[in-house]
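FORM 7B: Structural annotation worksheet

SECTION A. Query
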Amino acid sequence: MNRQESAGREALVVDPEAHAREIARFLRRVVRRPATDAADPAAMTCAIWTGAIGDDGYGRFSVTRDGRERTVKPHRYAVALALGLAVEAGQVIEHVVCDNPVCVHADPDPMVGHIWPSTQSENLARMQAKGRGQRWWLRRWSGLARAERAERSRQLAAAVRDGWDDDAVRAVLLRIDPAQATLF
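SECTION B. Predicted structure
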């Protein structure tokens, strides 16, 4: 969300009781890899958003607050839901582990979750450490420009839309920068 979008916006709050139907709708659009054994827990993989994806490669999810519909990024919604936090407009929610724009794996344990509240300076420092600092308009997740990154996000979502398929996920990821951290 850029500064213009965040101006005048209230914090995103997800109340488990008041927003139960909305949460169920959100979770229907999230696909997780099933655990295969104790040494390979699904908790360590991305949770892929399979709903709408914008031209920036990030997902889109509609919520209604005070009778007004608004669109939020699913990774922000996931943090508000999983961590029970009010996500302030303009607050950075960083893909700390995976750099995968369609990952919504939030968890109260920072050793498990892939996305976490952050600050712009922390985000920029991690980008620099990952080698993205000098060419910030290109994401290491895909090594491609914005339009191509959006297409890769859509391909990954399509690969798991009917359930997790390791081969389909691998096929998409093989077309992505090999420096990308593995999803599983």
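SECTION C. Observations
Residues 3-173 form one domain. The longest strand covers residues 61-65.

SECTION D. Sign-off
Analyst initials: ____
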